[in-house]
Write a structure and sequence with these properties.
This protein is of the alpha/beta class. The protein has a single domain, classed as Rossmann fold (3-Layer(aba) Sandwich). It is about 30% helix and about 20% strand. It is built from seven helices and ten strands. It has a seven-stranded parallel sheet, sandwiched between helices. Strand 2, helix 2 and strand 3 form a beta-alpha-beta unit. Helix 1 packs across helix 2. The chain is globular. The protein starts with a strand and ends in a 7-residue tail after the last strand. The chain binds 2-amino-2-deoxy-6-O-phosphono-alpha-D-glucopyranose. The site of 2-amino-2-deoxy-6-O-phosphono-alpha-D-glucopyranose has 15 residues, from helix 5.
């Protein structure tokens, strides 16, 4: 595992963007996942800028969504597909890039078929939830399951829907499973945001702990973690 700690949101985004652009340079037709959440927002801004400058494109790539809410009352508002549209429209929603979206109504194995047809992931770019979830592989989930439906944990809902009333929140999501993330040729794990100290400490120390799904990627052969340095600072 390679751990890169960064100071401030600009450096965090720049390091992640540099890594991703290098991977695309090496293999322009790569298959990759892209995560949602607040963590990758600066990375996506940098990718949009690089695309505008003509320095980067995902024109030959295939992008897989990591996850999607399943019973979101306001769908597509507040969904992950909407997030990607808001943050990466010109980079991935164009005539060239292939984007494989998760249809929350479709049976999960349809997504596995698409992953298999693409020969799996070259690069899994993932964020980490406060409780250590990756995609929506929540603590206690079946880590041998491929794409599957999960019941969202209360702390995940509180983190992702802080200002949304309970009746307007989803209860379930569909997510790529741990096996496909573990089999990705390379993994870029992005860790930033407050309230992630517990999982950040374990990741930095290289400790696999069942309570934090992200740590189950620590024995991956090609794992790079970009982590905001304040998460490791002792208060
Ligand atoms: C969501 C997504 C994850 C993401 C996580 C972290 O729940 N399912 O893929 O990594 O949130 O979110 P944030 O970056 O906002 O902390």
């Amino acid at each position: 595992m390679k751990l890169i700690t960064t100071d401030g949101p600009e450096e965090f985004a720049a390091v992640a963007a540099h890594y991703l652009m290098r991977k695309v340079d090496e293999k322009p037709d790569l298959t990759l996942t892209l995560p949602t959440g607040s963590t990758p927002v600066g990375l996506y801004r940098d990718l949009r800028d690089a695309r505008r400058m003509g320095d980067f494109s995902l024109d030959h790539a295939t992008v897989f969504m990591l996850d999607e809410y399943r019973d979101l009352p306001s769908y597509p508002e507040g969904s992950f597909i909407e997030f990607l549209q808001n943050n990466l429209a010109e980079v991935i929603f164009n005539d060239s890039t292939t984007v494989v979206t998760i249809d929350p109504e479709a049976p999960p194995h349809a997504y596995d078929r698409a992953l298999d047809e693409a020969h799996g992931l070259d690069l899994a770019v993932i964020g980490v939830g406060r409780n250590g979830h990756v995609g929506f592989n929540e603590p206690g989930d079946d880590f041998s399951a491929r794409t599957h439906v999960v019941t969202l944990h209360q702390d995940t809902l509180d983190a992702n829907f802080a200002v949304v009333s309970r009746s307007d929140r989803p209860t379930q999501a569909i997510t790529i499973g741990m096996p496909d993330l573990r089999h990705a040729r390379s993994v870029l794990m992005l860790v930033s945001g407050s309230e992630k100290r517990a999982v950040a400490d374990l990741l930095a120390a290289g400790i696999i702990d069942d309570r934090f799904p992200a740590t189950h990627l620590l024995d991956h052969d090609d794992l790079t973690i970009v982590m905001a340095s304040e998460l490791l600072r002792k208060s």
